[in-house]
């Protein structure tokens, strides 16, 4: 087994950061292309939106067992296999017109993302400790947000000039480049292999689920990211089909909102030493205040500028909550970093896929007011979970 050499530690760390945004790139790069895909593939909007949701579901489910696998068989081999299969799956997606083959490839890509991202999350726990570990885990969530920032921006121009298939060709090329660089510079970082037994895995999961701060943290991560994915599912259709703007504009909107998410992450890192639960509650109250203002403003002002302005503020708070809770949950069980990271991501993304797609399916947002309704449901759910945490602490 090729182990990571000390001289390559810095480059391997950069490569780990380059792999982390893969899930965001895979979901967001084709957001501006979704309306065009619906037209070219002769499919209703809901079927194209489903390509995003099934990716998130498979991505989330994979992380339940991916963590145990990378803790048992190592990070490096799993990451390399995932990157190689990414290349194949993205090329197939780009070359087919069959929606069911696209569904199958999106399921596979979600699975591969789960393995690749979980292995790289564990990398930081393997290689760093103490304050450095906390530092890199916090930076990791910020870097992860780079995918949703740059992907739709690039995707908008790819769609305008080359069509929706070009998105997946670019992803294939990116995966191939990472595969080559990982082969040259990276290596195995796992020091102690845990046995891969179903009973052992279930035992760890039960123990983690019984840890209430960890359990509530996973739920808050899912609800926070649901706000982002909710807009991703409906935003491009509203901007392109209802407001009449181009796919490039839709890409710019996603770029702006991606910066909002990253801003929330930077705020989370800047306030990392502040009391944990009070800052989360403040963020939730500020979030609900912006949502209420969005409701009121929708009766007087409803255009692309007001829509993006309110979404920007709301996404900052969502990014702040996610950054804090995700870093907390991943570092909660350092002796089983792969399993903890996998379980956190798995639960968070299953919640995200189910809640965001469910809200879009029920509300079917077409205007700013209906987007505010979706945000409001998510904000109230977050308030409910935080209230449960406060009540539980009061009885301890």
From TrEMBL:
Coiled-coil region(s) at which residues?
Answer: none
Q: Fetch the SUPFAM superfamilies from UniProt.
A: MFS general substrate transporter (SSF103473)
State the annotated membrane topology for this chain.
Multi-pass membrane protein
Task: Write the record's keywords in alphabetical order, separated by commas.
Answer: Membrane, Transmembrane, Transmembrane helix, Transport
Q: Localized where?
A: Membrane
Q: Which residues cross the membrane?
A: 48-66, 78-94, 135-154, 166-185, 214-239, 251-272, 284-301, 307-327, 339-363, 375-391
Recorded superkingdom: Bacteria
Q: Where is the Major facilitator superfamily (MFS) profile domain?
A: 12-396
Query: Know the name of this protein?
Result: DHA1 family bicyclomycin/chloramphenicol resistance-like MFS transporter
Species of origin reads Chryseobacterium camelliae
| Taxonomic lineage of the native organism | Bacteria, Pseudomonadati, Bacteroidota, Flavobacteriia, Flavobacteriales
């Amino acid at each position: 087994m090729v182990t990571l050499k000390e001289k390559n530690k810095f480059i391997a760390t950069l490569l780990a950061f380059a792999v982390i945004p893969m899930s965001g790139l895979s979901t967001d790069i084709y957001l501006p292309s979704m309306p065009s895909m619906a037209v070219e593939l002769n499919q209703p909007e809901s079927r194209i939106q489903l390509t995003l949701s099934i990716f998130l579901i498979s991505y989330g489910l994979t992380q339940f067992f991916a963590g145990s696998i990378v803790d048992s068989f190592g990070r490096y081999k799993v990451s390399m296999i995932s990157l190689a299969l990414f290349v194949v799956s993205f090329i197939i997606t780009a070359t087919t017109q069959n929606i069911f083959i696209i569904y199958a490839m999106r399921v596979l890509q979600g699975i591969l993302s789960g393995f690749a991202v979980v292995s790289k999350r564990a990398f930081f726990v393997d290689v760093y400790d103490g304050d450095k570990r906390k530092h890199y885990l916090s930076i990791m969530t910020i870097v992860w947000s780079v995918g949703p920032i740059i992907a739709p921006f690039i995707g908008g121009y790819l769609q305008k000039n080359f069509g929706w298939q070009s998105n997946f060709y670019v992803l294939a090329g990116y995966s191939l480049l990472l595969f080559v660089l990982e082969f040259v510079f990276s290596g195995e970082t796992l020091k102690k292999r845990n046995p891969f037994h179903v009973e052992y895995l279930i035992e760890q999961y039960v123990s983690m689920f019984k840890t209430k701060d960890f359990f509530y943290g996973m739920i808050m991560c899912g609800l926070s990211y649901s706000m982002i994915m909710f807009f991703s599912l409906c935003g491009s259709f509203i901007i392109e089909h209802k407001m009449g703007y181009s796919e490039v504009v839709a890409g710019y909107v996603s770029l702006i909102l991606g910066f909002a998410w990253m801003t929330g992450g930077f705020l989370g890192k800047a306030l990392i030493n502040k009391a944990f639960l009070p800052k989360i509650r403040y963020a939730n109250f500020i979030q609900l205040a912006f949502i209420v203002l969005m409701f009121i403003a929708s009766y007087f002002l409803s255009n692309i500028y007001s829509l993006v302005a309110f979404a920007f503020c709301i996404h900052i708070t969502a990014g702040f909550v996610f950054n804090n809770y995700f870093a907390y949950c991943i570092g909660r069980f350092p002796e089983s970093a792969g399993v903890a990271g996998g379980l956190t991501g798995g639960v968070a993304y299953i919640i995200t896929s189910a809640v965001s797609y469910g809200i879009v399916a029920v509300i079917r947002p077409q205007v700013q007011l209906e987007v505010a309704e979706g945000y409001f449901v998510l904000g109230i759910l977050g308030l409910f979970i935080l209230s449960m945490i406060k009540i539980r602490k009061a009885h301890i």
